Amino acid sequence: MIPVYYNPMQSVRENDSFSPSAGKPEQVVAAWRELALPLIFPSFAPATRDQIKWAHESSYVDAVLDGRVNNGFGNRSPAIAQALPWVCGSMLAAALCAYERKMMTFSPTSGAHHAGYGFGGGFCTFNSLMIAGLGVHKAGAARVGIVDCDMHHGNGTENIIRELGVYFVQHHSFAHSGAHPQQSDDEFISEFTQALMLFRGCDLVIYNAGADPHVDDPLGGILTTEQMRMRDFLFFLHMKEFRIPVVTALAGGYQRDSQGSIDPVLKLHNNTILECWRVISEY
User: Fold this and answer.
1) pLDDT tens, residue by residue, 76-88
2) Total count of domains within the chain
3) What is the pLDDT of residues 5-56, one digit of tens each?
4) I need a labelling partner for 27 at 20 to 30 A (CA). Which of 14, 51, 108, 254 fits?
5) Three-class secondary structure assignment of 58-93
6) Helices vs strands, H then E, count in the chain
7) CA 107, CA 167: separation in Å to the nearest integer?
8) How many beta carbons lie within 10 A of that of residue 263, not counting itself?
């Protein structure tokens, strides 16, 4: 079974933004239900303000949730403010489940890694990756990894690590890996595998499985569909071989089809959970 931590409260259908991430959880979960995988959907609570403040300046958290400053989408939408604790709660609950039960879990959440200690931006308001990592550390994890495979650099994650001095969080951002469009499959596999070796010994790894590295993404992706499936397969296989529990988040993805739907992004997120199940069930 694969636990997926989803509550309809974490998804917002109406949000005027280039990024579809506010409404993506609902669509992703609907697509995953069609895959006939053995999924379970445990209940969970929204993150409290105090839990969000593990990773963020107190005044920033209060100002966002009270609608006094812009969120990461550049607006002050009450619906977004209401959803944010559920987004963070999903990630935290999924991480704690993975750590405590030594398994692979999913949080269908996006919009995290550009959010720093006292700021948001790039469609990211609160850094749920870091909230989850700090929560698992409080639960006993000595070393937490973040493998960030979004196409864009996780500057907010790095900022929080520096500001709080929480260097037990080991962070690798795909955007700084040196990957380029001319890489062969062998070159890509070699570089990605070398990066994954750095996470041996972690008590939990958080996988930010972005869909925006895809070559057709409008924000500059570089990987083919098969390379992205290979990326996901290699990640889950190595973590299983290392006996490291994993929580996976969705990160970015901005493709749309001719009808304006995000089906191309949903297919890439489908591949991620399918590769996870393939490793769980076959290896």
Assistant:
1) 999 999 999 999 9
2) 1
3) 999 999 898 777 777 777 889 999 999 999 999 999 999 999 999 999 999 9
4) 51
5) HHHHHHHHCCCCCCCCCCCCHHHHHHHHHHHHHHHH
6) 9, 7
7) 24
8) 15
